[in-house]
Amino acid sequence: MWDADKGAVTIWTEPLYTFANPILMLLVLAVLPGSFFRPIAFQVLGVISATFLLMFTSTRLWAADTDGIWALARAEGCIAPPYLSAGFAAIVAAFAIIRAIRRIRKPRV
Fold it and tell me: Could you read off the pLDDT of 81-96 as tens digits, one per residue?
């Protein structure tokens, strides 16, 4: 969705472009049922979705850039460091895991 006429992508606009991706938005939405419903299937769906969300958003932090594509894209201005996107995904993943553990451990009334 980036266009050169809009200027370089900053660390603040990178999450907007990242989470405008329909797959990542679906993963964020898939975390919600796991956070609010008790059945273990929803809990597992939420944790798995949050894990994939974290993996997709933080790939540029840990993957090797052997071809130099990401470095060229950063120099061109079409991507920025994914710190905010990865941080948000990490918070969502931690929330999903903590919420799942609390939901599963809590005795049913």
Answer: 888 889 998 998 898 8
